[in-house]
Design goal:
Strand content of chain A: under 5%
Shape of chain B: globular
Number of strands of chain B: 0
Oligomer: heterodimer
Number of strands of chain A: 0
Number of helices of chain B: 11
Order of helices and strands of chain B: HHHHHHHHHHH
Structural class of chain B: mainly alpha
Largest sheet of chain A: none
Number of helices of chain A: 4
Shape of chain A: extended
Structural class of chain A: mainly alpha
Helix content of chain A: over 70%
Order of helices and strands of chain A: HHHH
Strand content of chain B: under 5%
Largest interface: A-B, 70 and 94 residues
């Protein structure tokens, strides 16, 4: 990607992000009540999107030579350590370090 | 009045400060390790100011040029803001010019504070929410910039460092899972995405997955509505 293409990509992301933040205030100016389906989506979509993002992160791993095995090991490790210590930053840090060790040593 | 609001807002943001500094630093460091100048994470954290999407954007910048896809991905990943916005329609009323910034800087953390904390009566709520939002953004941008600058000084084999994004989302997934008894939405998200990944492949599964998720909820939602009507 060239520098210009990077900037256009970043602008597209900014535009998409800002649209999600400003849109409600344009559509529902003071006093207008949003329809039920929208408020329903509001309660469920945040949960579904995180599932989508987890899959997005490992999408390329499935077709590599190890078929996502190092990813699977690290994710299982994160689940265990997070259930045990319940410390977000620790789980993220430890999981990432384990993955880095795995791909730099056993799964080269 | 401003000073008082700042003093009231600061303690609420301190727990966020630590998390934002560390996560921001790892984001900046990741960007630097992929060869980007520190200006990129600095400006991206300032203008996108949506943590998960910034991590995803690192990936986008490293793959083929497709701004439309980037736009839709940003829409979907940040769709939750639509609903934050809907819940803040009332609260952000009558805050004058600050309203624009309050909306621009409405990240998960600022939303959760502004949504749940009612400032004391003698404090202007507009300024209180303004400082909550501003302080959180300062922590995040500082973290991202520092992390990238650190990347110039510290050198080690960073192979696999991008896994921090996966780790972040896995932890968020577990947190949400334990927060709520109803696991349907999380399973719909995970299930639809996996099915579409297998059907469409890594490069084009996102949009069908999004459509399938919305479809599932449309179906589910109308079922729910019928039940409540009874």
């Amino acid at each position: 990607m060239t520098g210009m293409q990077s900037i256009i990509t970043i602008f597209a992301v900014i535009l998409g992000t800002m649209l999600t933040r400003f849109l409600p205030f344009f559509i529902f100016p003071e006093g207008k009540v949003p329809p039920k389906f929208i408020t329903y989506l509001g309660t469920v979509l945040p949960y579904a999107v995180i599932g989508l993002l987890v899959v997005y992160c490992v999408k390329d791993a499935l077709w590599t030579s190890f078929h996502g095995l190092p990813e699977l090991i690290a994710i299982l490790f994160i689940i265990v350590i997070h259930k045990w210590k319940k410390c977000t930053l620790l789980s993220i840090g430890a999981g990432t370090i384990l993955y880095m060790v795995l791909v730099q040593t056993c799964f080269r | 009045m401003k000073k008082k609001a700042f003093k009231a807002a600061l303690p609420h943001t301190l727990p966020i400060c630590i998390g934002f500094l560390f996560l921001g630093m790892s984001y900046g460091f990741l960007m630097r390790s992929k060869g980007f100048s520190f200006v990129y994470p600095m400006l991206m954290s300032l203008f996108i100011f949506a943590g998960s999407m910034e991590f995803v954007t690192v990936n986008l910048l490293l793959s083929a040029f497709n701004p439309l896809y980037a736009f839709f991905l940003a829409l979907m990943v940040n769709a939750r803001h639509l609903f934050y916005g809907i819940s803040m329609l009332e609260k952000y009323k009558n805050t004058g010019w600050k309203k624009i910034y309050l909306i621009f800087g409405m990240c998960d953390e600022s939303f959760s504070i502004n949504c749940t904390v009612t400032p004391p009566k003698d404090i202007d709520k507009g300024w209180f929410m303004f400082f909550v939002t501003l302080l959180n953004q300062i922590y995040w941008v500082t973290g991202a910039t520092l992390g990238a600058l650190l990347g110039y000084v510290i050198h080690f084999d960073t192979t696999g460092i991008e896994f921090i994004m996966t780790a972040l989302f896995v932890v968020m997934f577990i947190n949400q899972w334990e927060e709520h008894k109803e696991h349907g939405p999380a399973l719909i998200g995970l299930g639809c995405s996996l099915v579409c990944l297998l059907l469409f492949g890594a490069d084009r599964f996102i949009l069908p997955a999004m459509a399938l998720i919305i479809l599932c909820f449309t179906f589910n939602g109308s079922k729910l509505r019928k039940e409540t009507e009874k």
